Amino acid sequence: MVSLLSIFLLTSYYSSILVANYKADVSTTNLKGVASLVASQLLEAVNNAYGLNVGGVVMVKLDIPDDCPLGPYSITISSSSGVTTLTVKPTLQPMVTVNLKLPISPHVFSIVESTVYSGARWNYVRIVRVGFSSFILELVYVGGGV
């Protein structure tokens, strides 16, 4: 009887580990897709910003999924050591994080470290042209929610 109980406990323990690993793999794949989607929208906004006059502003609404298999997530843009990075991670279970390097020059674009959250309807990227070849880029949550 004890051996049957120990076999059952070991089986359930390893099954829970397999399920957790599978969920993490699915979440990582999903978050990579979200990061790629947001990156393409950011690069489109950057492309549109080059046509602005000094002092001009372009705001592009981010179209992102409401959640991933681990629930809602956050999207953060930051720049350090000359590299602009987009970070996507779940807010409730931050065991999976996806970092994506963006081909945005920190010499031309001053990146304001900022975060938006999934599930909000009014997440935007805002770019302000402050000089002939200088811009400010940030993620902005304008208001509202689901």
Task: Provide a concise account of the structure shown.
The protein is 33% helix and 34% strand. The protein is α+β, with helices and mostly antiparallel strands and 146 residues long.
Instruction: Tell the overall outline.
Output: elongated
Low-confidence runs of at least 5 consecutive residues? none
Global structural class: alpha+beta
Helix/strand order: HEEEEEEEE
Spatial extent as radius of gyration: 20 Å
Tally of extended strands? 8
Describe the structure.
By secondary structure, the protein is of the alpha+beta class. Helix content is 33%, strand content 34%. The protein is built from 1 helix and 8 strands. A 4-stranded mixed sheet has the order 1-7-8-5, with helices on one face. A 4-stranded antiparallel sheet has the order 4-3-2-6, with helices on one face. The radius of gyration is 20 Å and the shape is elongated. The relative contact order is 0.18. The mean pLDDT is 86.
What keywords describe this structure?
alpha+beta, 4-stranded mixed beta sheet, 4-stranded antiparallel beta sheet, 146 residues, single chain
